[in-house]
Amino acid sequence: YVFKVVHDEHSKKAVVWLRTYAGEILPGSILINARTGEEERPTRLLSMHGEETVEVAAAGLGSIHAAVGLKHTRTGDTLLLSPREGCGGAMLDPLRVAQPVFFMALEVEASAQQAALGRGLEAICLEDPSVIVRNDRVTGQLLLGGMGELHLQVVAERLRREYKLNLYTGGMQVAYREGVSTGYTHESEHSPNPTAAADIRIAIAIAPTAEA
């Protein structure tokens, strides 16, 4: 189970922290991401001893280690050994993340920085599933979504600092959500023949959900 993803500031490679609940992981083991179905292979396994990082030969049952070489794994994913390596099919509940309600437009100073911006956003989204990136269908702007204004400001500052970007940000946009606060029920009857009993009866009931 992946509980943390960080990216090395110098190499920009992902270091994936995970706990092994069954089986044994070796460098080169084929792991299947239960969320995407993609295969991943760790090239190195690391163990932390204080501030010292030690390379290890295997990650066994119950151990907490870091894996290098996983490119598409994000925080909250479950990784399974492939069937030929003893996959039992067990899967932990995925990390439940609320949908972002704050959005901010992003733009770099020069088109030559677009690739670096894309790499930075991909890395941050793997580390933090509450961050999303999408294009506005009307304006075509690149929008960064998150949990709040401070959250997005921290992400923007990371992009400037770690990826050396001349980044411009737009005003904060809030996606307001509305819902009913009380329940309501209504019934209606209709008959093509006024002298006969109603042939059609329609009933509708509206009530707030637990998320409202």
TrEMBL record:
<dbReference type="GO" id="GO:0032543">
    <property type="term" value="P:mitochondrial translation"/>
</dbReference>
<dbReference type="InterPro" id="IPR035647">
    <property type="entry name" value="EFG_III/V"/>
</dbReference>
<feature type="domain" description="Elongation Factor G">
    <location>
        <begin position="97"/>
        <end position="170"/>
    </location>
</feature>
<keyword id="KW-0342">GTP-binding</keyword>
<dbReference type="Pfam" id="PF03144">
    <property type="entry name" value="GTP_EFTU_D2"/>
</dbReference>
<dbReference type="InterPro" id="IPR004161">
    <property type="entry name" value="EFTu-like_2"/>
</dbReference>
<dbReference type="GO" id="GO:0032790">
    <property type="term" value="P:ribosome disassembly"/>
</dbReference>
<dbReference type="InterPro" id="IPR041095">
    <property type="entry name" value="EFG_II"/>
</dbReference>
<dbReference type="GO" id="GO:0005739">
    <property type="term" value="C:mitochondrion"/>
</dbReference>
<dbReference type="GO" id="GO:0003924">
    <property type="term" value="F:GTPase activity"/>
</dbReference>
<protein>
    <recommendedName>
        <fullName>Elongation factor G</fullName>
    </recommendedName>
</protein>
<feature type="domain" description="Translation elongation factor EFTu-like">
    <location>
        <begin position="15"/>
        <end position="79"/>
    </location>
</feature>
<keyword id="KW-0648">Protein biosynthesis</keyword>
<dbReference type="InterPro" id="IPR009000">
    <property type="entry name" value="Transl_B-barrel_sf"/>
</dbReference>
<keyword id="KW-0547">Nucleotide-binding</keyword>
<dbReference type="GO" id="GO:0005525">
    <property type="term" value="F:GTP binding"/>
</dbReference>
<dbReference type="Pfam" id="PF14492">
    <property type="entry name" value="EFG_III"/>
</dbReference>
